[in-house]
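Dear support,

I submitted the protein below through the web form. The confirmation email said the job was done, but the results page showed an empty box. After a refresh the structure appeared. I'm attaching both so you can tell me whether what I see now is the final result or a partial one.
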Amino acid sequence: MIISMKKNAVIFYIKIVTLMIIGVLINNTKVCGNDSELEDLVICEDSINYYFSLLVKETIDENKIKYNDQILYYFNEALKKSESFSYSFSSLKNVGIITSDDNKLRIITWNLPYSDRTHKYFGFIQYKDSKKSYNFYTLNDKSENIKNAEYAILNNKNWYGALYYKIIVNKSKGNTYYTLLGADLNTLLTKKKIIEIFFINNDGLPVFGAKVFKNKKTPITRVIFEFNAQTSMTLTFDQEKEIIIYDHLSPSRPSLEGQFEFYGTDFSYDGLKFERGIWNFYEDIDVRDYNID
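What the results page shows now:
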């Protein structure tokens, strides 16, 4: 009788565990299978938060990559839903999410820090065209393989990775350009700030880069600043006067020119102003006339 009772208890325990496993599997399938898009988005957001919580505590790069793959998966599932464009993802603390003033473009970016103090960037572009058709694109960071980045025309599959924190909307000759201000934590020795152009071409595809920057004799497609990792650099936009303002960088000694780990601010400022479809360069501006907060 005792043996029979033990067998029944084991069978009962197995059934309970099986039901629990089935329940977990059912809950996981809710990510794609709910009638409510909002419910799906909440589940995806919780999952993204969970894997970020693991990632930030992890010290082994291989495990970081696995957790990041899960973050990419749940973001991809969430962004398939048209309601995701207006969903705030407000609980996510490790992700930068910015929206353009015309409410057509939203950019999501984050970084994956490796143990050697380098970084790789990940993200998505969400875009609503003039017909309010919704599309999203995965951003693939290929910056380590991009040569002459200041002159390159890129796309979402070949992206110069960064953490974007500002979108500026400009229009010229019927075209809309989105100027992006971004940061790159780069390496142990240097950091970067980036001014990037984004637009949707005539084929409806995303493009990064346009020859609209006139701070050199030959127009360039993006502006990249590199400087000492222990210092900071101002790169901001004065909304009222519609000008990008940034610290002028220089080496600590003339003999160190081109060695960016020795570059820092020299307490002067330059600017860029969008005029007739071009970001024109203004040297040594008086910041007392502008808002650089």
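Response: this is the final, complete result; the empty box was a page-load delay. The two ends are 80 Å apart (CA to CA).
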